[in-house]
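Final report, results section. Input specification for complex C-07:
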Amino acid sequence: MRRLEGLKRQRFIPIVVSLILLIFIMLFVSLSTGVIQIMPMDVIKTLMNNGTDRQELVLFDFRLPGIILAILIGAGLAVSGAILQGITKNELADPGILGINTGAGLSVVLFIFFFQNSLDTSSTLSIFIMPVFALFGAVFAAILIYTIAWKKGVNPIRLILVGIGVNAGFSAFLMIFQLKMDPQDFRQATVWLSGDIWNANWTFVAALLPWMIILIPLALQKANALNVLHLGDDIASGLGTRVEHERRILLLIAVALAGASVAAGGGIAFLGLVVPHIARKLIGPLHQYLIPISALIGALLLMVADTIGKNILSPTEVPVGIIVAILSAPYFVYLLMKTR
Amino acid sequence: MLSQINHSPILKILINLIALSFLFISIAGSIAVGAVDIDITTVWQALVSFDPSINAHQIIQELRLPRAIAAALVGAFLAVSGAIMQGMTRNPLASPSIMGVTDGAAFALVITLAFFPTVSSFGSVASGFIGAGIATTLVFMIGTFSKGGLTPVKLALGGVAIGTMLSSMSSMIALHFQLEKELGFWLAGGLSGTNWNSVIILIASGVIGLALAIGISKSITVLSLGEDIAVGLGQNNQRIKIIAILSVLILTGAAVSIAGAVGFVGLIVPHITRFIMGTDYRWIVPSSAIFGSLLLVLSDIMARMVNAPYETPVGAITSLIGVPFFLYLARGSGGGK
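Structure output:
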């Protein structure tokens, strides 16, 4: 067993390198496909600053920010899922299933609903405020779920059932507020709630980037605490970990990552659930390896889904969340049948 | 599970009669309330001496009456399905709404609209039936064939998984064939689109489905004590389960294809009924039907009043009533292990 762990640790660097390579390949594929096709050679030329104005516009102003957002959101949701699965000791935990995404979504919809007149929702200011609102919603949802599920401690099964219930409640509120919107906003909200990288521009990248740059390394730094927590509360406190304290900090990190991702990418389901499982298969359960690998796989998966969504029914753009759900729901069902 | 009180049969009949009279009052209220308020005497006149030249009578006969009846029937069907499911699986969270039924029906409906656009209203209801059946069967199979069996959490998560996948595929098809509006309308539809045709479909399915449900209600009582006991008493569990699933499919299929997403009625009502009526499903099934009707008729009135003159989807109302109850169950027996 220990030898196996050692072997997996040796595999860490090659896996990281090959994942980064795959991400770069996907970057080219994604840049060159779409409604306007651009040959891979032209992509390279344009990146080297030798393209036509039109190619530069399509690549730098439309496609590249969308792809970078996909990378950030994918990484954020995957790390969030990895942390949640670690602290709840539940392999089926995921920010989507627990209702954290819907909480963030409701908060953003309320924001659009109440400030649509006083504030242009695509203005720079509101783009920077929106992740904050999503964060409030996500934190509120998390506190609500944690409090309702609390009964002399938090049992993982109870946590998930409570999460499903809270999720349904938020969805009902969402539906009521959505129907009060005018048709344009309604359509926008519907597409966004099914998971869509809708506002692909550099301002949004700038709004999201600081969250990821701060939170993912923070999660990585807490990897050891996460490893110990995963062993169970008794062992963890025996090893001198302040269990509830560490759990709350980690929960906050996971919730913040999910909230920021939802602000930019809407309700992308199952990504945070499936990716940590794939990562665990590749590298084992130690979180200092699991978190970076999850981030990379999450980024890659969302890029692939984004590219598929843009091209499968061209010229109709299918929201990326739909593709992710169709790709990963069967795997989720498989996990569900396998676990007790 | 809630603690049960053993009432005498006379008291039980009395409670049912009181609930039934409340149901009739709320149906009358449901007919009177709306964009045009009509007073109760006019409602009565429209029913007993219909006069086509009076506008209010037309509204009542063509819009309000079928809608109120449909609400009562859909509520009854969902509640009875929930009761049968909970009794059969001995699972307090079993109910049509958490098992992907609506998403299944929507999926089949979108496929029908996309590939056979000329389909009749009866055909689209039939397709909703089939879709609801497929989704329920899938979720049941996931629960039954997985390690550890059909636990509450398996059933709920299986419903989430199948539901999300089916609704994603429907959105994709809808986007491609430009049917988003139809899909959204149907999903949020509630009861505003009901007419006499829907009532006929509901009654036809109800006669079969409710007859099956009442027919096996005694066996469900035995089954709810545990499979071993049922086998010990010489009961053919396999046959009972097949009949039970069949009646659930007919009832939820009809309800969902008429009313769209109406959640949590099938979850809450059986619990309340068990609390009042005890453990005997010969009492639970008919009482669930009455209480379910009452709940949905009242919710439908609320749906029209909350944001008048606009309608709030009735499913959102029932969810807001049902979610606290679901959380209570999840905190208690559902997640007790």
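Chain B touches chain A through 49 residues (CB under 8 Å). The CA atoms of residues 100 and 155 of chain B lie 10 Å apart. This concludes the modelling results for the funded period.
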